[in-house]
């Protein structure tokens, strides 16, 4: 005789709150394929790349159907420490989460990621000159030869 299986607890419904879940469709976008982490929780969209961390805080503005997207971008050094921080505010019209707003947020996320990658390439290819090369003699013969 088999004993009855223990009763499974009923799953609890997840509480979905805030504006960010309306932007959850961006997670599957190919422009975010190289991201290490993407989340849309409460009023925050977080996207982490190896070269940057991007946070977008969403807030509905009191007058009209406008949405404020406050981006905070942190460029990371090769060792993972914070190198630079940038803040950009973007105001979008209409209801939160439609295709046009998702596209605008995606364009900004992708642009910030490209800027961080370009910054890392510039840093890696920078040529450091020694102090002696930066000093030029003030001899008039040297200036005439140049």
Helix content: 10-25%
DSSP, total strands: 5
Number of helices: 3
- H/E topology pattern: EEEEEHHH
Structural class: alpha+beta
pLDDT < 50 runs, ≥5 residues: none
Features:
single chain, 146 residues, alpha+beta, five-stranded antiparallel sheet, 3 helices, 25% helix, 29% strand, flat
3D architecture notes:
The chain has 146 residues and is an alpha+beta fold. A five-stranded antiparallel sheet has the order 1-2-3-4-5, covered by helices on one side. Helices cover 25% and strands 29% of the residues. Strand 4 and strand 5 (82-93) form a beta hairpin.
Question: Which helices and strands, and how do they pair?
Answer:
Layout: E1 37-41, E2 44-48, E3 52-60, E4 66-76, E5 82-93, H1 99-124, H2 131-134, H3 140-145
Antiparallel strand pairs: 1-2, 2-3, 3-4, 4-5
Short description:
By secondary structure, this protein is of the alpha+beta class. The chain has helices at residues 99-124, 131-134, 140-145, and strands spanning 37-41, 44-48, 52-60, 66-76, 82-93.
